[in-house]
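BUG-439 | component: ligand-complex export | severity: low

The export step for 2-acetamido-2-deoxy-beta-D-glucopyranose jobs runs without errors, but we want the raw record kept on the ticket for reference. Input record follows.
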Amino acid sequence: MAQYDLTYKIAPYLERHLVFPLLEFLQERNLYSDDQILKAKIELLAKTNMVDYAMDIHKSLYHTEDVPEAMVERRAEVVGKMKMLEEAAAPLINFLQNPALVQELQSDKQSNLQKLNERHQIGPNQIEALYQFAKFQFECGNYSGAADYLYQYRTLCTNSDRSLSALWGKLAAEILMQNWDVALEELNRLKEVIDSKNFSSPLSQLQNRTWLMHWSLFVYFNHENGRNAIIELFFQERYLNAIQTNAHHLLRYLAIAVIINKRRRNSLKDLVKVIQQEQYTYKDPITEFLECLFVNYDFEKAQQKLFECGEVIENDFFLGKQAQEGSFVTVPLRDEFLENARLFIFETYCRIHQCIDIRMLAEKLNMDYDDAERWIVNLIRNARLDAMIDSKMGTVIMGTQRSSVYEQIIESTKQLSIRSYMLANGVVAAAAATQGYNL
Ligand SMILES: *[C@@H]1O[C@H](CO)[C@@H](O)[C@H](O)[C@H]1NC(C)=O
Ligand SMILES: *[C@@H]1O[C@H](CO)[C@@H](O)[C@H](O)[C@H]1NC(C)=O
Ligand SMILES: *[C@@H]1O[C@H](CO)[C@@H](O)[C@H](O)[C@H]1NC(C)=O
């Protein structure tokens, strides 16, 4: 399964602190050896200020109580620099910690800056010091401190590049604190800035968009509204363009989001189109599943891929979150994915076959006959399939208006909400009645 692990593709687009949760996850899943992961962690930490953490990892990696001299020196250096930055930022921080003074500030940035300068002798140097101090706090792993200072810095900052990097820092801090509501707000704010800012080059803007999409995965797969938002963002032309230019692996997340989102069935056609365009640049069991089903109509292979999809999801940091249910551990997103993917198989199967034997289908789905029939009735309703159930024969008969099977397939991939459905006969009515439907 390590072949489908995207960590090494995603990490270059993340702030280094954001990579830690991914490494922690990999460590739990045992996809790589513990030593490999610990070494990767130390390497990441070397460029941050989290020296104590690096020391702890060093001790457990080499089974020793000693730490290298370099780490001890680095610790002293970090502590010294922290003191220096704190002093430089102190005038502004003291001001900001005094509610009575802060109340004097208004919404107009220029007049605030003037007031700060005239009444409190706080000028550009002190404001710059606040940024440096916030950044340093972040590097030390104090994300809440960093988030507060970066927020305040942005209210005073007049340099658009600086303001942009403060916003990136704030978003990272909120993600690392798992404040998903605030993180979503910051993500949207950042998107607005990236879309409207005058970048020095189109390449910079493209790269900023690519970064944004990577960071958004943390938010979208944790926030309850994320499933719609990810589809909206990734399908926007400029963002889709960024995916197709330098981040093909993001197709995995777009594909998953579309498959599990029943209200976004109409995005399926666009998704399949992109997956086909990119079939030589990116493939994984999830994109292959869609290809088998909607391009090649190869049901056997689609079923095989489905099995691999489950494993890929379990081993993906963004998708594989576990939940405890009594004494069971489940992966909710995997289960949801599999349920929806099976529906896709069924619906597509129905569109191709004129007549489906319910008994045969029940066996394939591992259900008893009555359950299978009830399941199919619901599917036909929900997917608005043009189908009838003949309960005497035990068959599902697909709509008769179609001229040719292949035209129908083309038609149905164009427009997945198919015509009206026709349901007939007593069994269906009875099944419906027990479930309280109005037919
Ligand atoms: C984090 O930063 C805040 C604000 O400066 C500070 O009050 C807090 O003590 C810091 N926490 C740690 C663990 O350094
Ligand atoms: C954007 O920047 C370019 C130069 O970097 C400048 O020529 C142009 O006028 C700017 N556009 C706006 C809307 O500020
Ligand atoms: C985002 O754009 C800024 C210019 O405003 C640039 O300095 C920075 O490198 C860009 N970020 C990335 C990740 O390319």
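Assignee comment: Attached the raw record above. Residues 402-439 have pLDDT under 50 and may be disordered.
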